[in-house]
Amino acid sequence: MRLGSKLRGVFPRGWWRSARWWITGIRELALSTIAAVTTVVFVGEMVRAVRHRDEPRTLARLASTFEGYVSSLLVNGAGLGVFGTMAIEDDLPVMLVLLTGWCLSNIGVSAVVFVVVAQSRIRRPAAWAELDFVEQHAPKYGWPPETVEEYRAQQLQELTSEA
């Protein structure tokens, strides 16, 4: 895929005056930030992911926050390392114990979601390939399809929504 096609997917014509583009971007950024910092809020999503671990379409709905779960593993792992270092150098104040528990709970939720999605991607690569194709090529922000890939992605999207 050429750079122009990729940029058109991210920045369609008239993106700067499209309220839908801005709202979608801000929503995705907010969800990823919440998932990175306060992953415990998404315990319900984790339970839903475990219940539907054999259904890639249900797990694909987590995709908007999946990057947030991965960043949560990294951020809270680093925080755990910092708190561990502080615990070695000083005695354990109550706040340090609470923050360590917070990091561990965030890591637990993130790790479960990460493992469930990774197992699903390994077990059902064809279904995930189709979902990734639709996500990558489907027309966004209400714009009509312009390329062959966008028309094909729109057809696949309509077929999956009917099923």
Tags for this model:
163 residues, mainly alpha, single chain
Report on this model:
- The chain is an all-alpha fold and 163 residues long.
- It is built from 8 helices and no strands.
- Helix 3 packs parallel to helix 6 (94-123).
- It is elongated.
- The relative contact order is 0.12.
- The model has no long low-confidence stretch (mean pLDDT 82).
Task: Summarize the SSE layout with pairings.
Elements lengths: L2 H8 L8 H19 L5 H9 L4 H5 L2 H27 L4 H30 L1 H13 L10 H15 L1
The gist of it:
77% of the residues lie in helices and 0% in strands. The chain has 163 residues and is mainly alpha-helical.
Strand and helix order: HHHHHHHH
Estimated radius of gyration: 19 Å
Ends distance = 30 Å
Mean pLDDT: 82
Number of helical segments with 4 or more residues: 8
User: Which structural category fits the helices and strands?
Assistant: mainly alpha
Shape: elongated
Strand content: under 5%
Q: How many strands appear in the DSSP assignment?
A: 0
Sheet with most strands? none
